[in-house]
Amino acid sequence: MRMVLNSIRSHSFRILSVLILIGSLSYVSSRSKQNAVHPLDQLYHKLSPNTEKADRKTIYRRLSLHLRGMIPSVSEWKELENSNEETLESFAVSFLKQPEFAEYWGTKFGAMLRDKSKGRKIPTGSFFQYLADSLHANKPYDVMVTEMITSTGSVKESPQTMFYIRDGADPLQTAEYVGRLFYAKRVACARCHDHPYISDFTRRDYYALAAFFSQQYFRDGSWEPNRYGKTLSYVPRELEVHLPMEDQKNLQDKNNEWNREFWNKWTDEQRKDYQKKHELEFATLYYEPKLGIRFPHTDDAPGGDLVRPKFLDGKEAKLKPGEDRRKVFASWLTDKSNDRFRKVIINRVWTELMGWSFFTPLDDWNEDTVVQGEEILNHLDSYFLANKLKLKELILYIVTSNAYGRSVTSQSANQNTIQYFPPQRLDSDQLLNSLIRVSDLQKVGNIRERNLSFFTNLLGQKPYDLSGTGKVRIPLDNLKEFTNAVEVERPAPYHSLLAVFGSGQRVDISDDISELTIEQMLTLMNGRVVGKLVWDFGSNQSLVKAEFDEKKSMNQVVQNLYFRLLGRLPTKGEWEKIKSYQVKPDNVFDKELLQDIFWALLNSQEFQHVN
């Protein structure tokens, strides 16, 4: 009877998924119609029937900050004003195609994957470039993950190998992060004992997961991988114990023979020549099919055997001799039947855009987790799957809904983040990018703060080609001036504005900090970066001075300044305040007044938040 009921439920879910998918695809095919109802809004209305839509300019600024990590430019604001479109879909498409999208979201993925721009024999920014270029090209998410998990070779040729090299290709560390990143399952507690919070997940299960990632190792010094040809497995000495016993003995015998015949007979100069000859130019990840991982010996449990791989769902893998276990795992992880893999990244994207999560923590979906808005999550999963796991399609689908464009609450007592959009402080990249955008030179030089002790009219093109155009920037060595926060190395230097405003140390998954600090407030009021921007604002060579020379009106310049920073004109009350400080005639340039207004706007809550 139970089997029959399960079969009926499974069949019913498949039918529901098909119906939802048909509805969403119908919307996509007709979304150029202004009155088309977004299927996501139909489901969202069930969850929160009383949402109100924000004004067009607020949503446009929100879109720009969420998709590109920066506020719109003056010309973009004017383009919005001149547009007759009721929706912002074409602008969202434009933002998704621009390099700034890949740069900003590449930084987010870099934080998620704990990317560090620099390392021993690692080209600066190589892993970030891989991530950003993949996003720019709209590469399917499952393809990206598979490329990382199955990667091999030098980091120069295959930068995705940094996925492993980041942790020294340690299979235990890799297993822990794979579980959290791609499956929202925290298994680290089982490294030393059976897991106390996940039922039936033993210490052996932990090692069985790590066994998938035990066939690779990395080197960044002198290494001759084919010293004994292809008939004998040659691995670093510390990994010999993880070979089958016969291979382990054969390698040890061969190493002893090689030492006797060569190394022990060489002079120091000959040894140095040998090491220099085989010195690797770049850090390199090697694959050795015979490597495994042995279960540790303990007093209370037998060990010493090579552990058989087991998936995160508890099922044992069926492997052929010598098969790349990483490929087997990647195939299981990204299989269409594994909706949990997709829902974990959907939850991350949704949280970033909507300000609330289907489940939290984002990396811990356990037996006690309560999922809110599950019907929406299932719907997005169906849409994501139908669109071949392309993240840009998923993002576009979300941001073109009225649910995304919901208003901010005006009631301090009602902070319902599902009904109202929760204001978010600009993250460190959004802040620096926006400061650069409002500067006269469109770049900043010294970002030290601490002392050390476009496309339009695309609505008719269906479906959209969201492949990016233009070249993505990456972190560079010894850069003196920055046009975008993406050019700053990560983790951001301790003394930099990015670090002050919470850019993480890339020690853990997405470890950026969003809490407000006194240091941040003081930095915006009298820090080096803002101080330099304000000091240079209105100089003889500045854009704002050129604008005044053309308009001959301070009122017009002030209006444009408001437009540049906030996307709106001054309110009546703000105009009255400005007039009270305006001592010079309208046709006389007042640099000090502009600098005061500029400073005040930069320190306003309106500028510092995504609303």
TrEMBL record:
Q: Which InterPro entries does UniProt cross-reference here?
A: DUF1549 (IPR011444), DUF1553 (IPR022655)
What's a Pfam family in this record?
PSCyt2
Sequence ranges assigned to domain DUF1553 in this UniProt record: 325-581
Q: Which residues form the DUF1549 domain?
A: 50-215
Q: Which domain of life is it from?
A: Bacteria
**What protein name does the entry list?**
DUF1553 domain-containing protein
From the broadest rank down, the organism's phylogenetic lineage runs: Bacteria, Pseudomonadati, Spirochaetota, Spirochaetia, Leptospirales
